[in-house]
Design brief:
Distance between the termini: 57 Å
Strand order of the largest sheet: 2-1-12-11-8-5-4-3
Order of helices and strands: HHEHEHEEHEHEEEEEHEHHEH
CATH topology: TIM Barrel
Radius of gyration: 19 Å
CATH class: Alpha Beta
Largest sheet: 8 strands, parallel
Shape: globular
Structural class: alpha/beta
Strand content: 5-15%
């Protein structure tokens, strides 16, 4: 095998013993999990807003951003539940480039997976302990979920992972909502099959164990746009797209809690983050005009950081993304307050 095995990593139980939940961290997560589940089950009319940097590339600037976000949450708490987007591992289309905090706690240094596991857990712990919120992350590697399962309140399955059997079955064992993105091709059937798999129980191999899952009733759709065979970006957040998803859910009556989160960036924005406010407001308008859309659209994903745009790893601009471009803080704060006024 043309592969070097450098060292055996600590298992999740060992890492949790090294960095356990303390104080009221468990209670905060339990309360927020319950509130998020109410949104997906239709028992709460609040809008879910999953917002934050494309990647959590620097602990200081991420925490700075989250402190700002927490202050805005207090202003809109009657209408909006904010879940910080703290993405610590990043899919790369070609495999090249920065793969997130998990791989490189310092983006300018070589990968160190053990330091990355620790840095990832410590950052998500700080979100709860210092900010009083719980966060969302992408499950890029299904076998790593156990390092964070006591900290996260929302998990996204990416467009490149949604067809993978292990991701689907791992999601079926989660007790928090798992969002299944439409694949890069835009095929709704793939996404709906993934939701079906995640909502049902399974027996499968997980981290060397024979695992038995009970099914996740809060597995749901995320619409993020798609790319056609010519590499052209196409959105799927318009009225007709969401109504088509309503029809897809109605054709699958076995699925529980029909729900969708609209990802306002990626192919939906053509990777132009400044389009995100316009997209979000269009969907809110369609929610007002259609009970079907109102009932199914539970919230939005927004890529947002302190500064607009993106930079290279060595760019040196504090609070500016080193992966996909983001909406800057001033525009993000204004957007959150405008959403609250529109609800």
């Amino acid at each position: 095998m043309n592969m070097e095995f450098k060292r055996k990593l600590a298992i999740p139980m060992e890492v949790k013993e090294m960095y356990p939940l303390t104080g009221n961290m468990g209670r905060i997560k339990e309360e927020r999990d319950a509130e998020i589940q109410k949104i997906f089950s239709g028992r709460s009319d609040k809008l879910l807003l999953i917002i934050g940097p494309c990647s959590a590339d620097n602990e200081d600037s991420v925490m700075d951003y989250l402190e700002r976000l927490a202050r805005v949450q207090e202003q809109v708490e009657e209408k909006i539940l904010i879940v910080p987007r703290v993405y610590t591992n990043k899919p790369r289309t070609t495999g090249d480039g920065y793969k997130g905090l998990l791989h490189q706690p310092n983006p300018e240094e070589k990968p160190d997976m053990f330091k990355g596991i620790i840095a990832t857990r410590k950052l998500h712990m700080r979100v709860i302990r210092d900010i009083g919120l719980t966060s969302a992350d992408e499950m890029l590697y299904s076998e790593n979920y156990k390092y964070l399962d006591d900290l996260l309140s929302y998990v996204a399955i990416g467009a490149r992972s949604v067809e993978d059997q292990q991701h689907r079955l791992t999601a079926s064992g989660m007790d928090v909502p798992a969002g299944m993105k439409n694949p890069t091709s835009g095929d709704y059937t793939v996404m709906m099959n993934s939701i079906h798999a995640a909502q049902n129980g399974h027996t499968f191999i997980y981290r060397g164990w024979e695992a038995v899952s009970q099914g996740n009733p809060y597995a749901h759709a995320i619409l993020r746009g798609y790319t056609n065979s010519k590499g052209e970006h196409y959105p799927n957040y318009h009225y007709e797209d969401i109504m088509r998803l309503c029809d897809a859910y109605e054709a699958r009556p076995e699925l529980k809690n029909p729900s969708v989160i609209i990802d306002t960036n990626h192919e939906n924005s053509g990777k132009d983050p400044l389009q995100q406010p316009r997209i979000l407001k269009e969907v809110l308008e369609n929610r007002r005009n259609s009970d079907r859309i109102r009932n199914i659209v539970k919230g939005f994903m927004v890529e947002s950081y302190i500064e607009d745009g993106r930079q290279d790893i060595h760019g040196g601009c504090y609070g500016k993304s080193i992966t996909d471009p983001c909406l800057g803080w001033d525009k993000s704060e204004r957007l959150i307050l405008e959403i609250a006024d529109l609800l």
